[in-house]
């Protein structure tokens, strides 16, 4: 006779086989899109316990529907450089899921951008946005345009051309893009100006990350980096630890990194290293953030120029070497797959206690398993870096209400949101029998809200 345990075991195996079948369909339908496969696999594997407990999600084909975007737009972006030559780039927007609100997600301008990158980012955005508790769906976009070395006028012409097409597909209640790698306040400003011109109307809520003088929110620039540190701080506190007197390594030196460094330092940590795509700097005295801000936010210079101001610091070519530095807390804040299994092993050998993902999918699946197998506290991107999009949603709320909150109000809400995301992720991990596994906890907590909304809204 079959025991309850046998029945449970069979259910578990059936769901595992079901998830593997969906993974095969994803790989067949999206050939060569390795980043998208990686993001999908991480989520699908963690959904097994929730699908065992709630077979209605299988009956409604929720997972099959979630992994197929509502639409993927690609378009030509022609522009003229300063020498009068015509250039052509490719633009993308993926509108993945709008079950709980308008599509929402950043735009990335980087030569590595392709359909796989945009789809992995858009897919993750569904769950991240759900976790924030704000009414926003999942989307993402960008272009293979490389902003490095371009003049201000070239950037403006590119942004205007990009918006000429994108404007047909976005709107404050439809799809609300924001910044990401290579897209900051300057680019958002040029795109907003073009959108306004094309629409003949002032629709402030169509883009977030705007300048403060025309509808931007105080605290948005800092939100992703601060939010990551708030989330990691919650995780540390829950385990009897804190940032105080800890040694921290932060990769990257862009928007997320700069404000993660700022908040970690404010909480008493010493940040000893950061990087750009050429190499990393190590300053045993602690990174001087004002120098980094001047180099990266004002002068647009490479990170090795830090040594012009701090000759005792060290510069090393290459990015991965940053993970060989002994530290208590590692915050990968640059780009996808920047921290692999080998780097994870180096960090573990050097005594790392916690890892918090500021970037999207910066840790490979093998590296995540290595951290977990070695009891390193691990804060996954979907939860830890959700502060940026959460404050973007607050920017939309302020635009709709035609008012502006103080920085204290925004920061207070951000802190509370990050705390809630942490608690929801922990609670889901406990409820589904994987206590302490925040990767699974965050995926399940984000998934359920969207899945329930999809069921309520019928098959569409
Ligand atoms: P920025 O463009 O401001 O900074 C990116 C940083 O990462 C730069 O230092 C850049 O160096 C470095 N970098 C980029 N590509 C590579 C690479 N291939 N190898 C090594 N380093 C690289 O971007 P953000 O700070 O906005 O974004 C960083 C990460 O955070 C991304 O994964 C993004 O998706 C994620 N994120 C951002 C949010 C936001 O609000 N901005 C919200 C949530 C997630 P270099 O200048 O040399 O290219």
Bound molecules: NADPH dihydro-nicotinamide-adenine-dinucleotide phosphate
Look at the structure and give the CATH class of the largest domain.
Answer: Alpha Beta
- Kindly, what is the distance between the CA atoms of the first and last residues, rounded to a whole number of angstroms? 43 Å
Helix/sheet category: alpha/beta
In which order are the strands of the major sheet placed?
Answer: 9-8-7-6-10-11-12
Number of spatially distinct domains: 3
Integer average pLDDT? 97
CATH hierarchy: architecture of the largest domain: 3-Layer(aba) Sandwich
Under CATH, the topology of the largest domain is which? Rossmann fold
> What is the ordering of alpha helices and beta strands?
HHHHEEEHEHEHHEHEEHHEEHEHEHHHH
Uncertain residue segments? none
Q: Evaluate the radius of gyration.
A: 22 Å
CATH superfamily of the largest domain: NAD(P)-binding Rossmann-like Domain
Overall 3D shape: globular
* Oligomer state of the chains in this structure: single chain
Question: Secondary-structure map with pairings?
Answer:
Elements: H1 4-29, H2 34-53, H3 56-59, H4 62-66, E1 71-80, E2 86-97, E3 103-109, H5 115-131, E4 137-143, H6 152-166, E5 175-178, H7 185-199, H8 220-238, E6 247-250, H9 255-266, E7 270-275, E8 279-282, H10 289-298, H11 306-309, E9 314-317, E10 329-331, H12 341-349, E11 354-356, H13 365-373, E12 377-379, H14 381-384, H15 387-401, H16 407-431, H17 438-456
